[in-house]
Design brief:
The structure holds two protein chains of two kinds.
Chain A lengths: L2 H10 L3 H13 L4 H21 L5 H18 L13 E6 L7 H13 L2 E4 L6 H10 L4 E5 L7 H12 L7 E5 L5 H7 L3 E2 L3 H15 L1
Parallel strand pairs in A: 1-2, 1-3, 3-4, 4-5
Helix pairs in contact in A: 1-2, 1-3, 2-3, 2-4, 3-4, 4-5, 5-9, 6-7
Chain B lengths: L1 E4 L10 H7 L10 H17 L3 E7 L1 H9 L9 H6 L4 E8 L2 H12 L3 H32 L8 E5 L11 H8 L7 E2 L5 E2 L3 E9 L21 H12 L1
Antiparallel strand pairs in B: 1-2, 2-3, 3-7, 4-7, 5-6
Helix pairs in contact in B: 1-6, 2-6, 5-6
Chain lengths: ~210, ~240
């Protein structure tokens, strides 16, 4: 079997040891790291994303696959030291000020990394200024915000206002999500996108990246 | 009466279907073997770090009226508004599975043990509901023991943040109940810490007071309509 296909399949099975081992073997066989990343690891995560979306597999399987992907990326990372890990772009994510729920945000981060994005996770209870400052400093293209409470949702609006105030709304796009958040609310506060779940969030971020470029 | 209730760890352990449902696995789907293995591992972790506690405080209807009004942000029409006034007894409550569980979830995420972290998060959410069930049952048994309630009395719980009772209602609830004694505090955003905690009111009375139609204006925004299964459970008991 094609080594890259094998990496992708082991990743889909959530076997981190096999993914790491096969990644090393692929490198030893002189397969370029970028090809291993794209056609092995990211391909595997894309399949996982599709299966999750189709309800063929569920959250634990996705998370096991994500860990397997990172095991492969850990092998590749030293080879990208000079030019940095190839990335589709940088996304700053966090749970908004006043809110401590971060399981949904973590999942979005995992799926974004799996799709090939650089993700800077600011954690939870993140001040609006911290989102914007980090996005500016890290040259991020997207800010992703999560909230699980109706009382903390307004903090999303403050982040968007902060982006607008700094005149960055053409360069930095915003996406919101979380149980009480709706597409209507996202529109109301001026967010560029609303992700109803982790896989949809990834699709939205890809689209936002296209809009920027 | 104000009471701190001790809960045995084994009473806080949720079932696998309860945990899988929170993880988005439908009950009719068979989880993968690795998922079942994760559940077993998670159960051990949870058992090792859970610190269950519960507290209740009886409250009169008039006093609860003020707690319920909270910061004046409730929806105009809510199911609970009609229910609690018909209650025989009310008690505020708060329960938690403790801070160590949340710390363990954070640690697992930070060390890239995502699947275990996700499973523990779901396990802890289901565990907190189990603790609330135990405390609710304890409250009902006390009412019966003290001849305040009959055997047929139904106790159901309602929480701020649901069914039109605004989250800000937590403030007055906390002022009255003072659950700091069992380690639960309230943040400015009205979020409880530890995260895996539940608070609200136990409403004791006849079955009929808990039955309502889900046609309140707020019901159109509800994604779960979980009130239906609670009401169905009551009606099953009636049959």
């Amino acid at each position: 079997m094609d080594m890259l296909k094998e990496i992708s399949q082991h990743l889909q099975g959530g076997s981190k040891e096999k993914v790491a081992d096969m990644t090393r073997r692929a490198l030893a066989a002189n397969i370029p790291p970028k090809e291993i990343l794209d056609r092995g690891l990211i391909d595997g995560m894309n399949v996982i994303g599709e299966k999750y979306k189709a309800h063929e597999i569920f959250l634990p399987d996705v998370l096991l696959a994500a860990k397997a992907m990172y095991a492969g990326m850990d092998v590749l990372r030293p080879l990208f030291i000079k030019e940095g890990m190839p990335s589709l772009g940088t996304v700053v994510i966090g749970t908004v000020q006043g809110d401590l729920h971060d399981i949904g945000k973590n999942l979005v981060g995992i799926m974004l990394k799996g799709a090939g994005f650089e993700v800077i996770d600011l954690g939870n209870d993140v001040a609006p200024e911290a989102f914007v400052e980090t996005a500016k400093r890290e040259h991020a293209s997207v800010i992703g915000m999560s909230a699980l409470l109706t009382t903390t949702m307004p903090a999303m609006k403050r982040v968007i206002e902060c982006v607008q105030k700094e005149g960055l709304n053409g360069r930095i796009k915003t996406i919101v999500g979380g149980a009480p958040v709706s597409e209507e609310y996202a529109r109301e506060i001026g967010a560029d996108a609303y992700g109803y779940d982790s896989t949809h969030a990834v699709e939205c971020v890809k689209k936002l990246m296209t809009d920027i470029s | 009466m104000r009471e701190i209730i001790e809960i045995a760890t084994e009473d806080a352990l949720p079932t696998a279907p309860d945990v899988f449902t929170i993880q988005g696995i439908p009950t009719h789907k068979k989880p993968s073997a690795t998922t079942v293995q994760l559940f077993t591992e998670t159960k051990k972790i949870f058992t090792a770090c859970v610190q269950c506690a519960g507290i209740t405080a009886d409250i009169a209807i008039a006093a609860f009226d003020s707690v319920y009004a909270g910061e004046g942000m409730n929806e105009v029409a809510t199911p609970l508004d009609g229910i609690f006034r018909k209650a025989d007894n009310l008690a505020l409550f708060a329960v938690t599975v403790g801070a160590a569980v949340s710390q363990k979830i954070d640690y697992l995420f930070k060390t890239h043990e995502y699947a275990l972290a996700g499973m523990l998060d779901a396990f802890a959410s289901a565990g907190a509901e189990k603790v609330a069930d135990c405390v609710q049952d304890h409250y009902r048994q006390r009412l019966i023991r003290e001849n305040v309630a009959a055997e047929k009395t139904v106790v159901l719980r309602y929480s701020p943040g649901y069914c039109g009772w605004h989250m800000s209602g937590q403030k007055k609830l906390f002022d009255y109940l003072e659950p700091g004694e069992i380690g639960i505090t309230l943040l400015d955003s009205f979020l409880m810490k530890p995260l895996k905690s539940i608070s609200g009111v136990f409403v004791a009375g006849s079955k009929d007071i808990h039955v309502f139609k889900d046609d309140f204006p707020i019901c159109s925004e509800c994604q779960t309509h979980s009130c239906r299964s609670r009401i169905q459970d009551i009606q099953k008991k009636r049959a």
